[in-house]
């Protein structure tokens, strides 16, 4: 029983540590025309010990404040050595990138707002993280055979704990992607609601102007018609 309790405590500790090892970046930044803004995410070497191909994953939403121009940006993802891993130009609304990682270090995502955009771009980096979205063949945990006592001792050994730690770390990465996708859907819904409310306000405003113009034209026509039926002034004939 002592081995089981120790195993449970160790697994719980590993789970908590894995959840706090890596975090999802979520930030908004305003990029002026002709400027570039970059954000980085540091990935530790232990994440590359997980079996499977590590991927840099992220989602971006683009918006603006201008009523006359629609902003667009060029997005680049850079490796820790500065090599370009991914690029997309003329991003007007949203995009999703998922590229292979190249070792530990700080990965950067850069947003360039060209002069042709003519207005500031509000970039919403919903999440930017590393995740092993596909597990390799060696990623499974081997459960030892034998009695309960023998299994507890084997599972509590350093090798098996390392397998458990890597598995929990991979699961925490995958949960970050799920949590980031949920945040992305929530942000997208908020943006649609803001667009609907803005369109509603504009529709009510222009409808009010149209109704006011119709009332003004109607009153003008009534006054003009009434002017035609006013009695003329009588003139006295001189003797």
From TrEMBL:
Residues 1-26 form the signal peptide. Residues 26-230 form the GOLD domain. The chain crosses the membrane at residues 204-229. SMART domains: EMP24_GP25L. One of its GO terms (cellular component) is membrane. Its main location: membrane. Keywords: Membrane, Signal, Transmembrane, Transmembrane helix. It is found in: Membrane. It is a single-pass type I membrane protein. Belongs to the EMP24/GP25L family. This is GOLD domain-containing protein.
